[in-house]
Specification:
With 620 residues, the protein is mostly helical. It contains 36 helices and no strands.
Amino acid sequence: MDVMGDKATLFETGRFVQPSGEEATPDESRDETADAVETGEAVEEMSLRLAAQAGDVEAVSVLGAMLLRRGDLDGAEPHLRAATAEGDRAAANNLGVLLHQRGYPDEAAGWWRVAAVAGSAAAAHALGRHRRECGDEPAAEYWLRQAAEQGHALGAYALADLLEHRGDPGAEQWMRAAAERGHREAAYRLARALDHQECGDSRADGEADECGHDNGVIVRAEAEQWYRQAAARGHRRAALHLGTILERRGDLKEAGRWYMTSAKDGEARAACALGFLLRDAGDTENAAIWWLRAAQEGDGNAANALGALHAERGQTQTAERWYRAAMDAGDDNGAYNLALLCAEQGRTVQAEQWYRRAAYAGHREAANALAILLLQGGDTAGAEPWFSKAAEAGSVDAAFNLGILFAGRGEDAVALRWYERAAAAGHTEAALQVGIARLRDGDEREAERHLRCAAGGGSAEAAYRLAAVLDARRPQQPAHELGEIVHEKTECEEWYERAATQGHRRAQVRVGMLAAARGDVVEAARWYRTAAEAGSRNGAFNLGLLLAREGSEPEAAVWWTRAADAGHGRAALRLALVYARRGELAEGQRWADRAVSLGPGEVAERAARLRDALREELSA
C-alpha cells in the first residue's frame, strides 16, 4: 500500500514510515552531509536496539519502522510483531504494510483493522484502499471516512476519489479538505473541477450572475490558486495549466517559468507551449529546441510546429518528415499541413490525398480545402458535400463558400442562409453579401447592420455601400462657393474616406465630389487624381472638370481623353467641344461620334446635334 505508519501521532518520534508512493528527495553524491546522516542513523539505531532489549515497547516499534523503511523486511518483522503484541497501534499498521509488501494482503488488512480500530488514521486509509481494491465500496467508504475525519490528507483524497467515481456531490468537500492539507493531486483535481464548472465555461468574462457577483472571475481565481499550490509542490500538469492561465492573462515571463518547470519534469505539452512562447518572442532557435524535446516525447503539436518552422526556411523535406511525425502522433493537423505543403509545390494529387485523410478524420479546414481543390478541378458535385461537412463542423469559410456555390447556381435563398451563418460567425465578406441582399430586398435597417459589421471588419466595398446608404438619408446641403472650406464631416463621408483609403475607386471619386462641394478644391483634385490613376474613368472625367474650371483646359483634355478611351460618354462630348472651339472640326466630329455611341441618352442626343453641326460646317 501507499501508506505506512501513524502520521498523525508518530511523525515527530520517527515511528512514521514514509509512503512508498510519495516522492523522496533525489539521492545526492555522498558528501559530508550524507555521511553525517548515516552516522546519525547508526547511532539512533544502536540506541533503539539497546532500549528495545531493555523492554521499551515504543523503541521496538520505532526500530521495526526504521528497518521497514530501509527495506529490511526480515529484520523489521519480528520487532513489529513484538510491538503489536504489546498493543502498539503504529506497529500494527506497519506490520500490515510489511505483509502487504510480502504479498499477503488479507493478513495485512487484519492488522490494519486492529490499528484502525485503535484510532490510526493511516491504517484506516490503508484498509479503505484495500477494501476498494477488493470491490467492497461500502467498507472502503467507511474506513476512508474514518481516516479523512481524523485529518488524514491521503484518506480525504482517497475518499473524494471514491465519491467522485460514484458521482456523489460530497466529493468536492473532501477533495478540498485534502488540498487544504497539502495534497498536490487533490489541489490539481480541485482546480480542474473549478475550471469545468458551468459558470466558468458558459458565462463570458465580466458577466455577473443573478446576485450581481462576477462568479466566473471568482471561480477562475480560485482555480488558479489551487493550480499554483499543486505546481509549487511539483505537480507538472498543474504547472502547465498555471502557465496557460498566466499566458492568457499576458504574464508571459511567469508563464514561461512555469512552462519550463513543467517541461523539465517531462511534460511534453509544456515544452511545446514554451516553444510557442519563445517563437512569439522572436527566439526561434530556442523554440525549436523545446519543440524537438516535446516532439520526441510524442507531442504532435510540437512536431507540426517544427514542420512549419522548416517549411518557412525552405527545408521542405525536413518539414514533410515532421508533418508525418505529427500524423504518427495522432495529430490530424499533420496531414492538413502536409497537404498544404504539397499544394504549394504543385503536387495536386498528393495534396488531395492528404486533405482527404485529414478531412475523413474530422479536420474541418481540410474538408473545406479539399472542396476548393475539387471545385477548381471542375468537380462541383464532389465539392459540395465536403463544403457542407466542413460548414456543419463549424468552418466559417466553408459556410461562405457554400453561399458562393449556391449563388452561382441562382439559388439565392439557400445562398443567403449560408451567408447569414458565416456572417453571424464574423465573416466579413459574408456580412457584405447579406447586406447587399437586404438592400436588394428593401430591408435597409438589416442591410445597414450587416454593412457596418463588414465595414468594421475591413471591407472597402461594405464601407462604400454603408456610406451610400447614409448619404441617401441626409438632407440636401446648400452649395458652397469655391474656396469656402467647411471642416465638419458627416459619418457617411468618414465611411467614404475609409473605403477610399483602402483603394476603393468609386469611394475615392465620391470623397472628391464631397470635398468639391465643401469648396476644398485641393482635396477634391487629390482624390480624383488618385482614382483616375487607379483606372477610374469617372475620376479622370471629374479631375478634368476641376482643371478646366481652374483654367487648365489642356491638362483637362488629357484626363478627358483617358476617360473617353475607357468608355465615358460625357468625357468624349467634352473633348468634342474642346476641339470644336479650337477649330479642329474633324477631331471634334470624331469625338462627337464617339460620344453618340457611348451615351447615355442625353449625352448621345447633344453629341449628335454637335456632330451634325460640325459636319455641315466642314461641308460648307
